[in-house]
Amino acid sequence: MIEQRRLIRAAPSFGLSQKLLGINWLYVALLCLLAGVGYAALYSAAGGSPEPYAARHVLRFGAGLVLMVAIALIDIRVIARLSWPIYGAAIALLLLAALFGHQSKGAQRWIDVGGIQLQPSEFAKIALVLALAHWFHRASWERIGNPLFLVSPAVAVLVPVGLILKEPNLGTAVITALLGAAMFFAAGVRWWKFALIALPVPFAARFAYNHLHDYQKARIDTFLDPETDPLGSGYNILQAKIALGSGGTWGKGFLQGTQGRLNFLPEKQTDFIFTTIGEEFGFAGGVAVLCLLGLIVFGGTLIALRCRHQYGRLVAFGIVFNFFMYVFVNIAMVMGVIPVGGVPLPLVSHGGSAMIMVMIGFGILMSVYVHRDVEFAGPDVGASSG
Amino acid sequence: MIVDEDEHRGVFTRRALMIMGGQATVLGLLAAKMYRVQVAEGARYTTLAENNRISARLIAPPRGPILDRSGTVLAGNNLNWRALLLAEQTQDVSATLDNFSRIVSLPDHERLRVEREVAHHRSFLPILVREFLSWDDMAKIEANSPDLPGIMVDLGTSRLYPFGARFAHVVGYVAPPSEKDMGDDAMLALPGFRVGRAGMEKSQDFRLRGKAGVVQLEVNAAGRVIREIGRNEGAPGQELGLTIDAELQKAVLARFGDESASAVVMDCRNGEVLAMATNPSFDPSVFASGVSQAQWDALNENRRKPLINKAVSGLYAPGSTFKMAVALAALEAGTLTPADRINCPGHLDVGDTRFHCWRKRGHGRLDLHGALKHSCDVFFYQVALRTGIDRIAAMSHRLGMGTHLDLDLPGQRAGLVPTRFWRLRHGKLWNRGDTIVSGIGQGYIQVTPLQLATYAARIASGRAVVPHLTRTLDNVVQPGAQPEHWPELGLQETNLHAVRHGMWAVVNEGGGTAPIARLPGAQLAGKTGSSQVHRVSRAAREHGFDSSKLPWHLRPHALFVAYAPYNAPRYALAVVIEHGNAGAKAAAPVARDIMRDTLARDPARLQHAPGAHMAEG
After folding, report:
1. Kind and range of the H or E element at B567?
2. CA nearest to B85, candidates B55, B51, B113, B44
3. What is the mean pLDDT of each run of 10 residues along chain B (617 residues)?
4. Interface confidence (ipTM) of the complex
5. What kind of architecture, by CATH, is found in domain B60-242?
6. Could you tell me the pTM of the whole model?
7. Which CATH superfamily is domain B252-286+302-605 in?
8. How far is A213 from chain B (nearest CA, A)?
């Protein structure tokens, strides 16, 4: 019982101002720094002008910060109670997008909600993290060991993955599946179970590929090998490499980049913004940005580790993992390591919808931090103590 | 249970740290890849970047010329030296423009436009600063080029209308595209690009525009063009051959003099419009470079309406020229035969209203031939009453009046030949008085000169010819040029003959209303008409009313429709002289002269020798 006392720290006087003070402002400063890097890169991408990208970037980040702080003040237990309703809403949005959404640039589906463009797949990833965290939070150790207990969360992963695959957006579907797997892993599911699932995947994929329509096969071929579309994504990759490579070790200097400004670089303000940084600040600047991104990832993981309830740990872990996947896919894509996937660099790329979703995610992460010590027992624990 | 929680936490910590380690490795690998691209292979990419890169630029296709039927250029392209601004090549746009305006004049509103376009366009798209540069200006710009970063001199084209105002209504004009036009067609954003805004320039705009070409250029890091790598010329706009005969059109306009007038000359076998003249007109080239407010106001406020193509948009009551339609409706309906005689005492009383004939003492007993020849009003009052407005309207529509003709020219109006249903839709019942005035082409009836010419052509040919202006596209003759292309009207030949013979008598028989239109050596069939714009009171009529004493804008319009040669119809025309008073006096001689010129220009004149065939007396 003494052990349990330790859990109950949440006093009734845990008020708003205390919560505000409780926010990890150092972490917020890291996010602001990253957004600042975005401002500089967008300023340069517009040819040395705050218009039309950088000024709006700051406004959006400001709005995102306010949203983040607001979410951080919400009790994590309230968020936990809403996990499955949020998940249901996300699935409904995916269905809506499949029925009424419009496509842009070939793959990603968008829907308009009161003039705001929303990518339901981005929302679905956060909703999936909340739902899975809620599921495993309630689970005792033995239950996690029971394979039947894993059926429901597996379905919860496969439904959005299937809907995103149908969009069709293979890249985001794979990322979502990986995110789900990472959540299973962090929750303590045994190694061999992953192996059991991973083993038949190549065969299943082969089987599915053979039953696809020709145009779908062609789409996957292009995704796997962009050289089949040399004037499209292949051209982009070469131009991105030229911009990065010509930056050298120390870069050409701020506003001195030529490749982006001569418009050889497509999407230079969105998905390929990292090339502008690489061209103007060189390898040194690129590594510095990588370090900053790494600090945000590791800082987020530390928040997860410090949390005293399983729900918070899993949520924080999932959000950070999702952020990391953005960073990895974007930078790997820009350097031609993986195929072009249409993923922005969070808080740096121009674009409002992605920025808002990322800041919502960080808001939940911050709520985990603020409420890291609250009494939040799963039903299993509560039942045995009551 | 506490053990459970601790175990949870322990497993989570182990695994989260494992993942974090994996993430750190991945970030490290990305950094390593970055090292390879930027440092190890950096030199190679630097050369690639600094040497040359490929940049694609659109080239504007030349706009298709518009020719008359014999190949005379009505709208062509002129070479046009112009100064363009590439915003990405200058640090300070306003400094460049300051320097520019010190060398070549740049009015304030032009400068505002340039600055607006700089803000709206992407910086690698050139923006038009000044066009129509003289050699002097160009030399000055070239000499001062170090002070003018971003400015380049370039050879473009501008639209040229060699005949100025004379074809403005038919050919139309071009103007800079609006934001709405632009859409996602990058070609329209090219500097100096123009789109058709009126006339054939508008209706055939997409054919005339052509397709933009693409030049692939090697560009160095500073944006300077090193050399051209590839070129796709695109497709120039199609060459549009009109049915118009430029010489005839000029002759028609010359014949109008200062009158506010309109005329349409058609080939009555295939509907080709040989002349479509409207006076007064305007200079179409003023729109190409943007028209000033003062010019626009002057054009709009002129009471003779120079901007309106009266031939297709001007609505006039057809007056007595409508009588052939009434006659054909009655003949086809069986309410009149060519031999029927009707007495004209000079007026017709219906209820307590008296409808006058233009000739106060009346025409006595007349058959259709005499009624057309003398243009007797009472005869047609009676015929209209017998036939009913619905049958008259149906016949008018069949003959091309009060209905939308499928002409390839914008701005066309359908006019109106009313029906009882039309009146009902406007909340009123049709009455006998309405039918009576419709019998002489007054009341609600409104038609355009183009419809009148089509009407004459259809009576003459018996075919449902549709007027058209497009004769050839890239030298391929369009199917409408074949007379067999147009279906028969399906009217009885004897009925058509009776009406045609009446029209012949108007001009060629003693006592006709338009002997003045007689053409020596050719047989012209026609009909006069006058279109009231001002209601004449009974009192004025009793006191010897003279419409020529009215102020200009209240005088009736003078109309004349005709075709020739009578026995082998080839050309049909309609002439409307606005406020020209009586059709016989004002419009008939104009129509006669136009027809004479038309016949004189007939390429088949020598073989057919239309004058040699004499019609029956």
Report:
1. none
2. B113
3. 69 92 94 90 74 66 90 88 81 85 85 81 74 84 83 83 90 83 69 86 90 72 64 84 92 90 93 92 79 80 85 92 95 92 91 87 91 93 93 94 88 91 89 91 93 95 92 86 86 93 91 86 89 67 66 86 91 92 81 91 55 38
4. 0.88
5. Alpha-Beta Complex (3.90)
6. 0.59
7. DD-peptidase/beta-lactamase superfamily (3.40.710.10)
8. 31
